[in-house]
């Protein structure tokens, strides 16, 4: 019988811990000129399991108004004091912004493996009450801005274990 591994989470990621729970929102995609070309609803389940192989695990559910759906799973490790992804879709990291004395800001950098010449940076701002957050992705390819993704979310539950994944 295999024993469960007890996970610890570094204090350097305290702001990120405030994002645990279930978030619902809207993703809006814009090209470099500001023209919107996609929009869809989302539900993200962000969890910090106490046991298991991954100290962070996020599952994203996307729903378009035309009936399309997509689901993506992002288990992550902690490497060099940051959450680190390296799976079939993305490679990247997330970290608290230490200069934000209010603990509202998290930064991410990642590359989609199907777009190796492109990368993006994401900034997440969490409201002081912890119920709302805003996310901005800035996409670059060949050194040039190619688009932005704006995401507005509301935490619908702090308890992720009540939601099936």
List the uncertain runs.
none
How would you state the average pLDDT, rounded?
A: 92
Helix % is under 10%
Structural class: mainly beta
Tally of contiguous helical segments: 1
CATH superfamily: Calycin beta-barrel core domain
Number of discrete domains? 1
Report the major sheet. 10 strands, antiparallel, barrel
Instruction: Provide the spatial order of strands within the biggest beta sheet.
Output: 1-2-3-4-5-6-7-8-9-10
- In CATH, what is the class? Mainly Beta
CATH architecture: Beta Barrel
What's the CATH topology label? Lipocalin
Distance N to C terminus: 25 Å
Which descriptor suits the 3D outline?
Answer: globular
Total strands: the figure is 10
SSE series:
HEEEEEEEEEE
Report the radius of gyration as a whole number of Å.
16 Å
Strand content: over 45%
Describe the protein in words.
This protein is mainly β and 165 residues long. The chain has a single domain, classed as Beta Barrel (Lipocalin). Helix content is 2%, strand content 58%. It has one helix at residues 14-17, and strands at residues 21-31, 36-47, 56-63, 69-79, 82-86, 90-96, 105-112, 118-126, 132-141, 144-157. The protein has a ten-stranded antiparallel beta barrel with strand order 1-2-3-4-5-6-7-8-9-10. A hairpin with a 4-residue loop joins strand 1 and strand 2. The protein is globular and about 40 Å long.
